[in-house]
Amino acid sequence: MSLSKLAHKLLSPTALQTSRRSLASVAPSQPLQAHYPVVPGSLTAHLQLRSGESFTGGSFGAPVSTVGETVFTTSLVGYPESMTDPSYLGQLLVFTQPLVGNYGVPGRTRDQYGLLKHFESEKIQCRGIIVSDYALKYSHWNACESLAQWCEREGIPAITGVDTRALVHILRGQGSTLGSLSVGAEPAKNIDWVDPNAENLVAQASTDSVRVFNPDGDVHVALIDCGVKYNIIRSLCDQGARVSLVPWNHAISAELPSYDGIFISNGPGSPSYCTETIEQLRRAFEMYQRPIFGICMGNQLMGLAAGLNAYKLRFGNRGHNQPAVDLTNGRCVITSQNHGYALDDSKMPAGWDRYYVNANDGSNEGIRHLSMPFRSVQFHPEAKGGPLDTAYLFKEFVDQVRAAKAAGVDAIIDASADSVQQSAAASAQA
Ligand SMILES: NC(=O)CC[C@H](N)C(=O)O
């Protein structure tokens, strides 16, 4: 058979469907064997999905067992950033990039704001990692230790030798699924399948006191911390803002005049638990007239405050190559993403419009107010990892904040009204 005929046969829709069917028909309880050599001399590790499928491989992290929501990312690089992103709290993270660990893990150097330069928070946030082929040797000018050493030191289990193509195929089909990652000769028994999304993960990830960054900044931005990534704080500081990081449930509506702008961060789990943040934003939408911007969880919370609903996506969008179309100008940007929920934007509340839309699946990628400077995006303009294509949004936001301040825009629509006092009283009661 000629090469072109062979290629045609292999890539024909029928052949592709057959290969999909054969992967999908893996018997649920049949253990899938490790596809790659595992770490020599390592302990055996097991990944069991609540739906019955199981995978056996080698352990290269801490010899502990855990349960979490099994989700996958299609990012090619950036495991130190992804693993420390607080939005992964409660999750077992599967990397579709087969070779992981080859550039090691960087050290804990800090920048001029006191933020870790190479990590997105102080510690590993995901509950465990699942890879196809852990690199036994690492090499990078900046590396201080191996991925295995880091996981072990931080008490995070890790499994290698898993056929992540088969695993992702299962997760795409049935959706993100609870998984048990255990270390030992036998798979874990009597697993306690606690769903991390059944609790308020934002309350665990957020700061519990106000922290100020770049105190000499010329404009003052309140950053609501739902589980903020360090590069969001850094990106605002780099634009010259003084940033007050406040807890997720801070009574911000009682102190609106203190801020030249408000920013809402990313964060883990379901947005539905953040009722206090939603209520604070709802009040801010009624009174505040300076810029407000949200990222990811921030987009979801702004949408809920505006009157939209959020729903859980089947398997989420996690990766560094997600195309989003800016509906104000038709331009497509390539974005970094990590979310399992999305806003239902099929019917927009009065005064609001869709801002960006995902070019792959049509899901919401942002909303904007039509007359007030309020907008948010579902993707991550701060990247880390991922492309910097949308970093301009930080500049636009801080420029807008600065322009409003220079123009003397009052924080409150009717500063003389009782609204601020009423809000303060309501916040005090809440
Ligand atoms: N990165 C984020 O802020 C994620 C938001 C939310 N936890 C979700 O999964 O959709």
From TrEMBL:
Enzyme Commission number, as recorded: 6.3.5.5
Pathway: Amino-acid biosynthesis; L-arginine biosynthesis; carbamoyl phosphate from bicarbonate: step 1/1
Example GO BP: 'de novo' pyrimidine nucleobase biosynthetic process
Domain of life: Eukaryota
SUPFAM superfamilies to which the protein is assigned, alphabetical: Carbamoyl phosphate synthetase, small subunit N-terminal domain, Class I glutamine amidotransferase-like
Reaction(s) catalysed (UniProt annotation): hydrogencarbonate + L-glutamine + 2 ATP + H2O = carbamoyl phosphate + L-glutamate + 2 ADP + phosphate + 2 H(+); L-glutamine + H2O = L-glutamate + NH4(+)
GO molecular function, one term: carbamoyl-phosphate synthase (glutamine-hydrolyzing) activity
Database matches in InterPro entries: Anth_synth/Amidotransfase (IPR050472), CarbamoylP_synth_ssu (IPR006274), CarbamoylP_synth_ssu_N (IPR002474), CarbP_synth_ssu_N_sf (IPR036480), Class_I_gatase-like (IPR029062), CPSase_GATase1 (IPR035686), GATASE (IPR017926)
Keyword entries, A-Z: ATP-binding, Glutamine amidotransferase, Ligase, Nucleotide-binding
Positions of the Carbamoyl-phosphate synthase small subunit N-terminal domain: 43-182
Pfam families listed in its UniProt record: CPSase_sm_chain (PF00988), GATase (PF00117)
PROSITE patterns in the record: GATASE_TYPE_1
Family of the protein in this entry: Belongs to the CarA family.
Subunit structure and binding partners: Heterodimer composed of 2 chains; the small (or glutamine) chain promotes the hydrolysis of glutamine to ammonia, which is used by the large (or ammonia) chain to synthesize carbamoyl phosphate.
Protein name in UniProt: Carbamoyl phosphate synthase arginine-specific small chain
Native organism: Coemansia erecta
